[in-house]
Amino acid sequence: MARFMVPKSHPRYWSLYYRHRLEEAMEKGILARAGMIAHGRGEAFDYLIGEKTVKPAEEAMKAAVAKFLLAEHPVVSVNGNVAALVPEETIKLAKALNARLEINLFYRTEERVRAIAEELRKYDQDIELLGINPTRRIPNLESERGKVDEEGIWKADVVLVPLEDGDRTEALVAMGKFVVTVDLNPLSRSARMADITIVDNIIRAYPRMIQLAEEMKKLPRGDLERIVESYDNGKILSSVLIHMRDRLTKLAEGGIWRKKEL
Ligand code: ATP
Ligand code: MG
């Protein structure tokens, strides 16, 4: 794999950097080809929100962290895109939330599971990884898509399934799981089906969630419960759409032609 040669001064440096990470992940067998397409769709929505964490996403992250800190069997799920973009942060977040980590793939192959496990173990050799030998099935999903770990998602009361397919999100909700997702597209089925939807780039969301987990750990349960109870995902999704609308209106009225920064 060629080294990443783009100069830091390039206006789209970070976008190109993460694309390179995905290319590398593809070569290592971590990423499914469709993962590239999913990333492109995510990037498009990142332009619309302004490539920064918006207030409704911050609120969703707080509620998600509170829910995780209250959970009995919390599980953080990791797929190819997640392992390519935020492997170290995934481990740190699972630890901060006291959650178990499960490799859970839409396009499951044993090679890809192994490649992801190997990648994660670069950051923590001893990390416990579930999903290596899944023995349970999510009802109403055909075989490969439905496989889950008995000790992980199967048992979980609260699950974080970032960059997830809508159909699987819906099936997890139908199983009675409390589902948190990270998804840049507020219109995706995943975003609409989850209990808490964090509309943000996972690259920004995970570091922030790690911080929040460290801070909120100190809160009494009652405070955490109040945060979760007062949370309204429908309102949050609407706020994101309104943010996009207002931002686009402002850009349209101000003009964007030959503007260096938006
Ligand atoms: P759905 O099945 O939920 O209707 P989809 O088929 O578009 O949506 P999938 O490919 O199944 O989506 O899941 C990937 C989702 O992850 C997409 O909605 C995409 O916008 C989002 N996504 C991709 N990259 C990122 C990222 N870096 N951060 C956050 N979300 C992302
Ligand atoms: Mg999908």
Descriptive report:
By secondary structure, the chain is of the alpha/beta class. The chain has a single domain (55-240), classed as Rossmann fold (3-Layer(aba) Sandwich). 53% of the residues lie in helices and 10% in strands. Helix 8 links the parallel strand 6 (158-160) and strand 7. The mean pLDDT is 97. Adenosine-5'-triphosphate binds next to helix 2, helix 4, helix 9 and helix 10. Adenosine-5'-triphosphate (ATP) binds at residues 38-39, 41-42, 45, 81, 85, 163-166, 182-185, 188-190, 201-203.
Which key terms come to mind for this protein?
single chain; Rossmann fold; 6-stranded parallel sheet; two-stranded antiparallel sheet; 12 helices; 53% helix; binds adenosine-5'-triphosphate; binds magnesium ion
